[in-house]
Specification:
- The protein has 156 residues and is of the alpha+beta class.
- The chain is built from five helices and four strands.
- The longest helix has 14 residues.
- It starts with a strand and ends with a helix.
- The mean pLDDT is 89.
Length: 156
């Protein structure tokens, strides 16, 4: 089954195109590597594939459905993203940061339940960073922060 498809895609900001004619198909379980020099549009492509930026041309299909027809909430329940960097301003614990990934699965104004906590802790343990659960996110190393963000994506 085709999981993610791009057809004649153009990406960029406003009317400034940084990539055009992008076509690919990914099936479930397939992995694609995107390489290129700094400033070549890799992050812009990812932000477009995630629905954060609108397409300038072409379209994107996820599970056979055009991305424009997915709600932000529904998309967040299917796709997660680990950014290159993350600058947290508040002193959240590692566990709290991972639990933030569960918000796409919770109703408005609710708090994480036992299942959410279990899944967050499991994600931390799977990445061998369970010992960091009560550490302050801003006080751990850059590599550890990346692992925490990956745990958040897994919990999502």
């Amino acid at each position: 089954m085709k999981l993610l498809e791009a057809h004649k895609l153009a990406v960029g900001y406003h009317r400034c195109v940084v990539g055009r004619g992008i076509n690919f198909t990914l099936a479930k379980g397939e992995v694609m590597c995107l390489l290129g020099p700094n400033g070549s549009g890799k992050t812009t492509l990812f932000r477009t594939l995630l629905g954060i930026l609108p397409t300038l041309e072409g379209d994107i299909h996820y599970e056979g459905k055009n991305l424009v027809h997915w709600s932000r909430l529904n998309l967040a329940q299917h796709i997660s993203y680990v950014p290159q960097t993350h600058s947290g301003l508040l002193a959240f614990t590692v566990l709290q940061v991972v639990l933030m990934g569960r918000t796409a699965r919770m109703s408005r104004f609710s708090t994480p339940g036992k299942i959410d906590s279990f899944l967050a802790l499991k994600a931390l343990e799977n990445l061998n960073i369970g010992h960091l659960e009560q550490s302050i996110f801003n006080e751990i190393s850059g590599g550890e922060r990346q692992l925490v963000l990956f745990a958040r994506a897994l919990a999502q």
